[in-house]
Amino acid sequence: MSPALNLHRYQIHTGLQHSIIRPRQPNCLPLDQVTLPQKLQEAGYSTHMVGKWHLGFYRKECLPTRRGFDTFLGSLTGNVDYYTYDNCDGPGVCGFDLHEGENVAWGLSGQYSTMLYAQRASHILANHSPQRPLFLYVAFQAVHTPLQSPREYLYRYRTMGNVARRKYAAMVTCMDEAVRNITWALKRYGFYNNSVIIFSSDNGGQTFSGGSNWPLRGRKGTYWEGGVRGLGFVHSPLLKRKRRTSRALMHITDWYPTLVGLAGGTTSAADGLDGYDVWPAISEGRASPRTEILHNIDPLYNHAQHGSLEGGFGIWNTAVQAAIRVGEWKLLTGDPGYGDWIPPQTLATFPGSWWNLERMASVRQAVWLFNISADPYEREDLAGQRPDVVRTLLARLAAYNRTAIPVRYPAENPRAHPEFNGGAWGPWASDEEEEEEEEEEERARSFSWGRRKKKCKICKLRSFFRKLNTRLMSQRI
Predict the structure, then answer these.
(1) 51 with 69: CB under 8 angstroms?
(2) Is residue 250 within 8 Å of residue 288, measured between CB atoms?
(3) What is the pLDDT of residue 4?
(4) What does this protein need as cofactor (predicted)?
């Protein structure tokens, strides 16, 4: 999870390196981190958000309107119905999730979200003066599941054999028209000539649900290129070199300093940036200042059967799920996730008929090395041939891990159930409850550590990676 409005920092520097924020978790984007819209407000910008938040909401302080946006219309969770805006986080744990500002927007239910969000974006442009700087962040729900589309878009793809692919194509087409309508509004209301339009995916496609990353390896939720490589474009009259494809190395953390710089703002070492200003690379075709990317280190996902500290030359425990890119080289350790090359689902919907066209061999390793420039499809593992490169990249992982903060992935709170909030998802915790939760977590850590000290050495070794609490795991792996 890396929404562009926050991330000037790697996940390991936010505590969010393990997984997405679940609706019932008392968790959100760390409140001590300055977001991109907050930085742009400092530069005199009006800031508006439309669409999917998914950065936590258990306290009001976590809401978009408390994190730098003047206005907000959208969903707080990560997966809602496109028409009813209902979201279920498990059997019987369902609630409404469409909000305007900090209020539940019951009256807007029934409108397809892609169209609703495009209309709101156009409304914002129609009522804003082009003389005042504007940051408009539109996070479409499409093309996330559930696969839903207005009938008129489905009809265009009625001859497509695979039902999931048909719905997916219809959703993409509707989103394309929404982007067109927003662009048209930029032109109509006098913004276009001084605007920069950025369109970007946030992860690879989910092949279970109509998406395709072919011929790249893997899918959403994995560290293969099919899971982590994003596609996008930048469109603006301000670009010095237009109509070209850039393969410069770039990470989502780069948007923060890039957009702050474009807005006339400033960043400093005190901001703790992991990103770079890549506007010269985008606009002029210069070399990217970025030479490496830490895809992630997840210390809680450390169960790879064939991984070990010995397998990592004593530098790194290769049972830990991690991935890093340095120059043309990419290293993966632990379990990177499902690693098949999955063809597009163009065949009719017969279970398994397309899935088995090309299957990978069973995983019996915990280290992979690829030259991504020469082999973007990750078919030729060079770990055995280039142990020198493996050592170098393992050392980089270890260096990054020494800067990591503890993972924050708290247990779900039953008070988050929408039935306690009038049937809608929304904040449930007060400042006092937050302090109590932090104290309870600290007591649990102390108790757990005290009990482990009394156990035999063999028991300690056996449970080291399985039972250590998240803080110790982040510090020791």
Answers:
(1) no
(2) yes
(3) 52
(4) Ca(2+)
